[in-house]
């Protein structure tokens, strides 16, 4: 499997290249050159797999045995989930009337990011050990990412991690999760500013290609392809747990509500959709609602400031992974995506071109938005008379947010 940049001006890379680079050299994000289409038969076969089993299947499709042999890959994934508190790793709680919560918080730091980061860290270590190389991971965080990233790489021989946390913007417990790890490879700094402001210098550092190369820097923020890849398993697992039967043709639809910040989880859901998983996506946002403006009005524009809410992990002004979603919506058109994102970077405000924004477009991509002023009952859900159900991807963490 090869990966190309959403902006179309960077060389193609393999999984290892995408894993280690974060952003592509043209400022875009890596996407698979082609998305495998899953037949109903494959979906039926996958429907009985455990959560780790699904992660293994998905990673096999997108990494390729020539890079990591299948049995080694399986071992890395088992190792990644070995410290989760729940024996199923991810558990679906059934509430009422088809309303379910996928419990994604059984990892060491209670953040759903534990799931994708611990796998990603295993993949990194595999390649680093093989090549006897060392990297320094640089992470900006409003809480969850920092704790989970530290947990996933602490003690690793070939990696150092530098975490910037916005002073006063993380909960006490998360600050402690980050500042009390006494491993030599973990370096945590408190900085002034909010989490978006803190992303600026990080983006500038990564734009300096020579500097990045010299120091072997890499990011583990949610733009990293490997994280998106692992998160696809949430959507498959949710679907198989919620769907009343897989014997119907076509398969019933399940609606997945995704608490959204940087839209990594959402991008994973969009890719799963494109591969043939019959899910509808409902984007749940709080007052930081750029995605709401985008889907409703085609208005992808920055708000004046980040608004602090109880769900600090969703207090994000720029949902970076929307670039992947625009690319998918445009039919993998890198020219359209590049023009749009470059204009956004210049003016911080873009009206989506018509071919991207039409009600029909978003609906055919099956995406709706749930604002925090709405309640779950207002979800478009249950549009499938054969019993599609509403499902919430529960990402709640020690912040109580999400
Ligand atoms: C990271 C996070 C989110 C947002 O996830 P994205 O994939 O960045 O959209 C939502 N809720 C919680 C609790 C999180 O930690």
TrEMBL record:
It holds the Pfam family Thr_synth_N. Residues 2-81 form the Threonine synthase N-terminal domain. Keywords: Lyase, Pyridoxal phosphate. Gene3D superfamilies: 3.40.50.1100, Threonine synthase, N-terminal domain (3.90.1380.10). The keyword Repressor does not apply. CDD domains: Thr-synth_2. Residues 106-330 form the Tryptophan synthase beta chain-like PALP domain. Belongs to the threonine synthase family. This is Threonine synthase-like 2. The gene is THNSL2.
């Amino acid at each position: 499997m090869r990966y190309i940049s959403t902006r179309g001006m960077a060389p193609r890379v393999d999984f290892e290249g995408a894993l280690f680079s974060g952003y592509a050299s043209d400022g875009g994000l890596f996407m698979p050159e082609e998305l495998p289409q899953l037949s109903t038969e494959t979906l039926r076969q996958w429907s009985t797999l455990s959560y780790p089993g699904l992660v293994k299947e998905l990673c096999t499709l997108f990494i390729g045995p020539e890079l990591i042999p299948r049995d080694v890959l399986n071992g890395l994934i088992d190792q990644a989930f070995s410290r989760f508190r729940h024996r199923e790793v991810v558990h679906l709680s059934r509430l009422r009337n088809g309303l379910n919560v996928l419990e994604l918080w059984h990892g060491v730091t209670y953040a759903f990011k534990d799931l994708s980061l611990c796998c990603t860290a295993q993949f990194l270590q595999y390649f680093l050990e093989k090549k006897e190389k060392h990297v320094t991971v640089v992470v900006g965080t409003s809480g969850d990412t920092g704790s989970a990233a530290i947990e996933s790489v602490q003690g690793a021989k070939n990696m150092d991690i530098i975490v910037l946390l916005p002073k006063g913007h993380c909960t006490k417990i998360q600050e402690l999760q980050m500042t009390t790890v006494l491993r030599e490879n973990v370096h945590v700094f408190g900085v002034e500013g909010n989490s978006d402001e803190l992303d600026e210098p990080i983006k500038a550092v990564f734009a300096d290609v020579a500097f990045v190369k010299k120091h072997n820097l890499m990011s583990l923020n949610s733009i990293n392809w490997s994280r998106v890849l692992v998160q696809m398993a949430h959507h498959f697992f949710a679907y198989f747990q919620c769907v009343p039967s897989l014997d119907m043709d076509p398969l019933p639809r399940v609606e997945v509500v995704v608490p959204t910040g940087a839209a990594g989880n959402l991008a994973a859901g969009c890719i799963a959709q494109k591969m043939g998983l019959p899910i509808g996506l409902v984007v749940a946002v709080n007052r930081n609602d750029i995605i709401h403006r985008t889907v409703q009005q085609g208005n992808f524009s920055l708000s004046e400031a980040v608004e602090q809410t109880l769900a600090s992990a969703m207090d994000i002004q720029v949902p970076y992974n929307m670039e992947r979603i625009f690319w998918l919506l445009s039919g993998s058109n890198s020219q359209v995506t590049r023009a749009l994102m470059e204009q956004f970077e210049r003016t911080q405000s873009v009206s989506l071109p018509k071919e991207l924004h039409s009600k029909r477009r978003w609906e055919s991509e099956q995406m709706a938005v749930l604002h925090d002023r709405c309640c779950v009952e207002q979800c478009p859900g249950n549009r499938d008379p054969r019993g599609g159900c509403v499902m919430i991807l529960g990402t709640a963490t020690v912040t109580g947010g999400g």
